[in-house]
Amino acid sequence: MxxxxxxxxxxxxxxxxxxxxxxxxxxKLNQVSVILETxxxxxxLTIPEDSRVVITFNGVSRVAGKLKLGEWNDxxxxxxxxxxxxxxxxxMNYNGHSMYGWEFINVENSEKEFQKWQNNSSFDISLxxxxxxxxxxxxxxxxxxxxxKTLDLRIWFEELEIESFSGISMTTQEFIDRGERGWxxxxxxxxxxxxxxxxxxxxxEKEKTLHTTRAIPNKGFIAKLKDxxx
Length: 230
Prior knowledge:
This protein has 230 residues and is α+β, with helices and mostly antiparallel strands. It has one domain (5-178). The chain has 5 helices and 13 strands. It has helices at 5-15, 87-92, 110-117, 172-187, 191-197, and strands at residues 19-26, 31-37, 52-58, 62-69, 78-80, 123-126, 135-143, 149-157, 159-164, 169-170, 199-203, 208-212, 222-224. A hairpin with a 4-residue loop joins strand 9 and strand 10.
């Protein structure tokens, strides 16, 4: 089922500033799972001791990834070739930063962006031939050092399921709510959230923006809050 626009936008907010730490694929079940560290706050307005979630994508028809040995804008950087089953091992030595930008699921024109690296991917596999693509998610991560790396990951899927890292199932709405509480806390200057995620909010009469305290060379990070934070 195509994810409705309203739910998609709310999921995107909850996914913003997430960091990919693990990846797994089950080719027989047409299933992909990722573990993400997320921005989150509990119902009682406490900060979770462990904000990681496991998102399982069902009905996966295709998955592609590119691990580039260079910065995000280095078109000449070498691509490392490997099987998707090897990605988690790569992530263990990767130490990538969080992804930003507010748009990850069913992004408009994302197919054009994918086509830019499709022919130079680390892996690109189809799990179901002839199946219509219903939803997509674009996950990325950048590691900045003397040996920069950039990871792009794209998954075509039908449905998703979410649970805490400890294995407690949560509804899509619960995941959205914990993310919204987290971002509201950051916007309101919650010191605990700033310390946990390295993000501080700044505002003026014209716009509301979020700034990360992490240094991101060349690209920087300024993201506008969604209208319903206005």
